[in-house]
Amino acid sequence: MYTREESSAIREAFWKAFGQYMALQLSAEGLRINWINYRTGIRHLQFRMEAERKQASIGIVLSDPDAGIRELMMEQFRELRPMLERHTGEAWQWEEHTDKGQGRVVSSIGTCIEGVSIFRQDDWPALISFFKPRMIALDAFWTDAQYGFELFR
What we know:
Blueprint: H1 4-22, E1 45-51, E2 55-62, H2 67-79, H3 81-88, E3 93-99, E4 105-114, H4 124-145
Helix pairs in contact: 3-4
C-alpha cells in the first residue's frame, strides 16, 4: 500500500512520461497540443484518461449539471456514433447517467482495459499503448465532429 504522497508521485511520474511520449505527436490539424488536458472548447465536455490500480479507461465525459443539455449532447453523439467508431476502430460503452456522488451525474462514452495498474511500472508501456491510439483517434474524430456542437459553446 502506498501513502497518499507516494501514490500522487507515481501518478505524476506516469502522466509526465506519457506527456513526454506524446509531445512529438501533432494533432489531426497538424498542431502541437496538450494531450493530457485535451481542450474540446465545449464547457462540460472532456476527453478523459484515467489509470487506476486494476484498470485504465479513456472516454468522452459530459458533465453539464443540466440533464436536458447532457441529453442533447448525448443525442448529438448518438448521431455521430458511426463516425466515432470509424475513427476508433472499436465500439465503446455508452453510459447515459452515472451518479458520481454528491448529486453529480455525468454521461460518458468510453472504453477500458483491465488487469493493468498505474502503480506497476512494467504496465506503463501497455497503458501508453492503450491511451495513445485512442487519444489520437478522439482528436481526429473531434476535428470532424466539433462543428455539430457549436450551440453548446
